[in-house]
Recover the amino acids of this structure.
């Protein structure tokens, strides 16, 4: 493969100031038609009913570039913007694919350290490899497909989290309102309450490089069931002076600088020590650990409400152990835990898949924008993308396959989705009137039910 030419972004992109596309008012309403955008993390600020100053359809797609943060977004629909703190980036000629340049921009390793505008002074001078247009389009197509798969996988994980929460509420009701009238107990009756500590740092023998993890509040990550791996370890001597819990315990962040960090929860899956910012519960035999985790996780605002009013938010052990919660019968807790374990197993597969997709995206992008991607030997990437696409069969893909006459549900059953999952998607398409079932018969009058797309 010949080395691709390196060109400055200013050589392939024209910029346009956003002044004429800025909204006159910020009275947004979701019922209005035109989206109002920012290039930052928020992206969509709302919708406006203003009829003028809308970005023209014939100029799409374009890149909107935040001049201060250097964050960029690819936009393929009409819109307005809120402020002038951005640039609109267009390809200079038909030999430049805007999607390719967008991914190239995202791959530039630059973090602004000053609050100033960067496009003209700095960013437009960065160089990117520019292959011929067909190769730009092929690279952009691969990255777009992988990015779509990443988004679908993230949505699937979010839906599983929502399923767990709705299952809990269906079985037990809101834990604060207790509409099902379960008996109410203080946390002290759920298990042993233990507050962590810090063995004296002046004594180096209290700490080691690998004896037992010493968990802190930054190891309690929202959305993660178990705590992350600790950066510090206690020694055997330090453990004798510290506090630890076994697998099945629940740890809760009870001292933090802000109220948002109070009530962070993790389920312990190995023996660990922990510091004084954490209270732990080692559940009694009549309390299921997984039930207790989701009970507390669904009560975070209620737990936060117990914190003191000072600058530093604290829930003391005496306050923590006296917080009241409903305690349903153990068999019902166990039934919930069994359901959740199955959902979590699926979620773990999805998270593994998501990690693999992110790695595939990053490795493909890095090779492409170093000019090292050999498009003549790209079958491995193609196979990896196609495999993930096949595993994540959605309604649009089912409809596409039905239209082509090549849909067989059994061909798409895998560890990521069951036959019932596919059937439910087919039924949804039928409910929406997008497909129908028809009866066909051959010369021997042997009939068969066939799915057909509705024109």
């Amino acid at each position: 493969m010949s080395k691709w030419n390196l060109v400055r972004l200013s050589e392939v992109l024209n910029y346009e100031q956003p002044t004429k596309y800025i909204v006159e008012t910020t009275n947004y309403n979701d019922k209005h038609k035109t989206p109002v955008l920012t290039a930052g993390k928020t992206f969509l600020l709302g919708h406006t009913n203003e009829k003028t100053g809308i970005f023209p359809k014939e100029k799409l797609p374009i890149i909107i570039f935040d001049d201060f943060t250097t964050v960029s977004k690819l936009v393929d629909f009409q819109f307005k913007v809120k402020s002038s703190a951005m640039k609109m980036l267009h390809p200079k000629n038909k030999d430049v694919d805007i999607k390719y340049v967008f991914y190239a921009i995202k791959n530039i390793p630059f973090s602004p350290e000053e609050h100033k505008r960067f496009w003209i002074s700095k960013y437009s001078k960065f160089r990117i490899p520019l292959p011929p247009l067909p190769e730009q389009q092929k690279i952009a197509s691969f990255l777009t497909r992988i990015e779509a798969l990443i988004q679908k996988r993230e949505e699937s994980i979010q839906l599983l989290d929502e399923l767990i929460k709705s299952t809990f509420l269906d079985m037990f009701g809101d834990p604060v309102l207790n509409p099902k009238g379960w008996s109410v107990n203080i946390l002290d009756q759920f298990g042993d309450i233990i507050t962590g500590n810090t063995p004296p740092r002046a004594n180096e023998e209290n700490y080691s490089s690998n004896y037992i993890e010493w968990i802190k509040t930054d190891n309690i990550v929202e959305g993660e069931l178990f705590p992350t791996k600790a950066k510090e370890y206690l020694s055997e001597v330090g453990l004798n002076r510290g506090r630890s819990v076994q697998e099945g315990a629940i740890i809760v962040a009870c001292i933090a600088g802000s109220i948002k960090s109070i009530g962070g929860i993790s389920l312990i899956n190995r023996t660990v020590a922990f510091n004084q910012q954490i209270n732990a519960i080692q559940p009694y035999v009549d309390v299921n650990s997984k039930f207790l985790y989701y009970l507390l996780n669904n009560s975070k605002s209620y737990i936060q409400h117990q914190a003191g009013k000072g600058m530093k938010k604290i829930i003391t052990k005496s306050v923590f152990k006296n917080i009241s919660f409903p305690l349903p019968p153990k068999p019902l807790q166990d039934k919930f835990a069994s359901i959740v374990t199955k959902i979590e197993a699926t979620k773990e597969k999805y998270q593994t898949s998501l990690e693999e997709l992110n790695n595939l995206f990053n490795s493909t992008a890095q090779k492409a924008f170093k000019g090292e991607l050999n498009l003549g030997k790209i079958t491995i990437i193609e196979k990896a993308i196609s495999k993930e696409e096949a595993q994540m069969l959605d309604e649009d893909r089912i409809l596409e396959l039905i239209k082509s006459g090549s849909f067989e549900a059994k061909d798409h059953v895998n560890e990521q989705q069951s036959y019932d999952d596919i059937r439910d998607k087919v039924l949804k398409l039928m409910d929406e009137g997008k497909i129908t079932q028809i009866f066909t018969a051959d010369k021997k009058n042997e009939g068969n039910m066939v799915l057909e797309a509705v024109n």
Observations:
- The mean pLDDT is 88.
- Residues 111 and 280 are 39 Å apart (CA to CA).
